[in-house]
Amino acid sequence: MTRISDYCRERDAALMGDLATFTAWAKTLTHTLPSPEALEISYYRLRTACPGLPMSLRSSAKEWLLARGYKAWDDGDVPIEDEIKG
Q1: Are 26 and 39 in contact (CB under 8 A)?
Q2: pTM flag (> 0.85)
Q3: pLDDT of 28-80, one tens digit each?
Q4: Which residue in 9, 43, 44, 82 could disulfide with 61, CB within 3.0 to 4.6 Å?
């Protein structure tokens, strides 16, 4: 990766996948990963923060976080599923 756009494309592809896909991508960036729990929370937080991901994915990640007492990393632009349904 030499450009920010390359990094963002790879990150978004990892976030579109499952947790194992994200973990494999994260291993390419560092030799030491956080605990499995912290990595999973980061996975969902990053999903809420990345505007290039589908809103449905970002919204479901936000719900996952809120249901477990964690804060999302969106800037208020990600509705929860109930808000989408009306």
Answers
A1: yes
A2: yes
A3: 999 899 999 999 999 999 999 999 999 999 999 999 999 999 999 999 899 98
A4: 44
Helix (H) or strand (E) holding 58: helix 55-67
Whole-angstrom distance, CA of residue 9 vs CA of residue 43: 15
Report the alpha-carbon distance of residue 58 to residue 15 in Å, rounded: 10
Check if the beta carbon of residue 25 is closer than 8 Å to that of residue 10. Answer: yes
8 A C-beta contact, residue 52 and residue 12: yes
The model's confidence at residue 85, banded by pLDDT at 50, 70 and 90, is low
**Is the distance from CB of 76 to CB of 62 less than 8 angstroms?**
no
